[in-house]
Amino acid sequence: MKNYKFKINENGYTVNIKSHEGNIIDLEVNGTAYEVIMKEEIKKTKTPTLVRAASQRPAEPLKVNPNSSISQILAPIPGVVLSIDVAVGDTLKIGDRMLVLEAMKMENNIVCEKAGTITAMKVVVGQQVLQNEVMIEIR
């Protein structure tokens, strides 16, 4: 396995370690075989354990205040506006589809969360939007 050369009190020693299992080592010193028993078993190095930080809470969906006069429809994720199904002045009820937002090759329907009339369109078809960007205003 391994060879070592020692010099003790001007005497030379050649040590050849043959095997090592647990706390027993078989070795040769200058050609003479010995079996050495260690007092304590040699501790093996441990593989480090990966510790991850606690995950953060996911973002909560937008809560619409039913008492406010103007509601803004924000982009829930960054993406591209594929189609717009409404126009300024349209009256909507809860659950009506307003537009389709493509994100990571998936189409996401953006639906109305508060009944009302559209007062402003802040996006056009093909426009890229960032998360939390205002897309539509409803009164």
Describe the structure.
The protein is mainly β and 139 residues long. The protein is 0% helix and 49% strand. The protein is built from no helices and 12 strands. The strands form 3 sheets. Strands 1-2-3-4 form a 4-stranded antiparallel β-sheet, with no helix packed on it. It has a 4-stranded antiparallel β-sheet with strand order 5-12-10-7, with no helix packed on it. The chain has a 4-stranded antiparallel β-sheet with strand order 9-8-6-11, with no helix packed on it. It is rod-shaped, with a radius of gyration of 37 Å. The model has no long low-confidence stretch (mean pLDDT 84).
Explain briefly what this protein structure is.
The protein contains no helices and twelve strands. It is mainly β and 139 residues long.
Defining traits:
139 residues, four-stranded antiparallel sheet, rod-shaped, mainly beta
Q: Topology of this structure?
A:
Blueprint: E1 2-8, E2 11-21, E3 24-29, E4 32-37, E5 71-74, E6 79-84, E7 91-92, E8 97-103, E9 106-111, E10 116-121, E11 128-129, E12 134-138
Antiparallel strand pairs: 1-2, 2-3, 3-4, 5-12, 6-8, 6-11, 7-10, 8-9, 10-12
